[in-house]
Amino acid sequence: MNTRFAVATHILAYLAHSKGQPVSSEVLASSAGTHPVVVRRLMGNLRDAGLVQSQRGAGGGTILARPAAEISLLDVFRAAQEGEPDLFSVNSTNPNENCDLGRVMQETLEGVLGNAIAAMRASLAAVSVEQVMQELAARRPNHCPKAFE
Amino acid sequence: MNTRFAVATHILAYLAHSKGQPVSSEVLASSAGTHPVVVRRLMGNLRDAGLVQSQRGAGGGTILARPAAEISLLDVFRAAQEGEPDLFSVNSTNPNENCDLGRVMQETLEGVLGNAIAAMRASLAAVSVEQVMQELAARRPNHCPKAFE
DNA sequence: TACATTTGTAACAGATTCTGTTACGTATTC
DNA sequence: GAATACGTAACAGAATCTGTTACAAATGTA
């Protein structure tokens, strides 16, 4: 699993914490331990998914497009992985041989994994960004004022 | 997800089908659509996990080390990914800054995903290699004699 | 014994992916 | 008009994955 999901969740939890106040990509990148362009790149996905709104120019930045309680981690996961190869797909080799055993194998495995994938999605859908933000705040009482305040 | 899981399942289903008869890496590779060395490399993992037994020399090859009904896809998954970075781990950046927000975030996300991962493992554990082999056989009545017989 | 077969393993190339970084145009505020 | 901040393209370095070659070791057979 790439870092997109963790960074996106980090960003959204931060935005949930600074209610309404636009946050710049530089501040978010500093908190998430990455580069501002990486944040802005991810932000494109979150914006397309309707999770955040950005504003250019001095004093600009990004805010949540809807209440943090109404953004699930499944929303975040889908937005972060949008346009990427499906993380849950069963990769097989076996291109277009004269035999379709590869395809049947892939379908069989996908059928086997179907229930597990649905369970994972349901688990992500049951947790909101606000819950994550509150758990983070609870677990770090007075640390790192620069990173998450 | 890399192709190891699919190839390993393919190999074991094949071995389950050719009961007791050793199968060479060349035949397995031809069926799985990959290279014999790839099969032998994977076979090292399956051997270490106690799922197969190999024999060198003329007439050698690989056989299942225990009945196919007693090998779950969770066994296969674990063996195939052994030594690889954990597929379910939440990768975050944030090395060793003065602040441990990255670690707390990772722990929080891993806590959130814990139930989903457990559900996925349970789903894999509930399916045996024999079931996969039978489903494959049922879904391809008379095709590809060279690939799976 | 000599030889063919097959595994075990190391080493490397090519492709792909991911992250970080630089660069620059555009929009917005003061 | 200047400073700020986003949006996006482009590229480099690292890492990963798969396929491939090469070769030693083991095993069965003539």
UniProtKB/TrEMBL annotation, chains A, B:
SUPFAM superfamilies: Winged helix' DNA-binding domain
Domain of life: Bacteria
Gene Ontology CC annotations of this record: cytosol
Recorded GO MF terms: DNA-binding transcription factor activity
InterPro entries listed in its UniProt record: Tscrpt_reg_Rrf2, WH-like_DNA-bd_sf, WH_DNA-bd_sf
Protein name in UniProt: Rrf2 family transcriptional regulator
Organism: Hymenobacter wooponensis
Lineage, opening ranks: Bacteria, Pseudomonadati, Bacteroidota, Cytophagia, Cytophagales
